[in-house]
Structure formats: C-alpha cells, structure tokens
Amino acid sequence: SKYHMKDVVVGKVYFLLVRIKIKHMELNIIRREIAGSTAANQQTDNETLTKFEIMDGAPVKDQCIPVRLYLKGLELTPSYKNVQNK
User: Fold this and answer.
1) Is the pLDDT of residue 31 over 90?
2) d(C-alpha 32, C-alpha 44), whole Å
3) Is 36 left (phi over 0), alpha (psi -120 to 50) or beta?
4) Cβ-proximal residues to 83 (8 Å cutoff; 6+ apart), any chain
5) How far is CA 3 from the centre of its chain?
6) CA distance readout (Å), 67 to 27, 44, 46, 52, 55
7) In 3-state terms, what secondary structure has residue 76?
8) Up-side HSE of residue 11: CA atoms within 13 Å toward CB?
9) How many helices and strands (H and E) does the chain possess?
10) H/E stretch holding 68
11) What is the pLDDT of residues 36-65, one digit of tens each?
12) Cβ-proximal residues to 75 (8 Å cutoff; 6+ apart), any chain
C-alpha cells in the first residue's frame, strides 16, 4: 500500500478465536531503503523508526482493538543524501 506522508493508517484487530497465548502485540514502522541499479550493487538498509505497543496481556474472545497511526510525526523521508548522483 502507498500512503501520503500526512496520512493516517486506520485499522482494527479482531480476535475471533483465542487458542494461542499472546503476551503482547506491537506495531513497528520500518524504513527500508534499497540503493543500486543491479542486484550485485544493491545495498539494503533497514531502520526501525518507531514501535507502538497495541496490546499488553492476553486477548479475550471477540475482542476488537482499534489502531490509528498518524504518519505526520514520523521521519519518513529518505536518509540517503546522494544516490547515483541524482
């Protein structure tokens, strides 16, 4: 999916069946940058920008957790200054 830098990511997490023991749930925003034109020259850089704790503790059946993440406060711009002299 593509989002604008000032968008809001909205969603819900539903627990219809609770068979596994879940202790916590996090939402991580990871910036992945790939630089290079060919597969041999490509350099991949992953950086975790932020972590949000959505849930702490075991969920209950039929529980719904709303998620709203504002992208405006995050630094989502590329970190490379000069890629292939462009």
Assistant:
1) no
2) 7
3) left
4) 35
5) 12
6) 9, 29, 24, 10, 10
7) coil
8) 6
9) 0, 4
10) strand 63-70
11) 778 788 888 898 988 989 899 888 888 899
12) 49
Judged by phi (left if over 0) then psi (alpha if -120 to 50, else beta), residue 85 lies in: left
**Residue of 69, 67, 59 lying closest to 12 (CA atoms):** 67
Residue 34 per-residue DSSP state: E
Q: What is the pLDDT of residue 74?
A: 83
Nearest to 83 by CA among 49, 30, 40, 43: 43
Token output for 75: 């630094």
Instruction: Give the residue carrying structure tokens 């995050």.
Output: 74
What is the Cα–Cα distance from 58 to 15, expressed in whole angstroms? 11
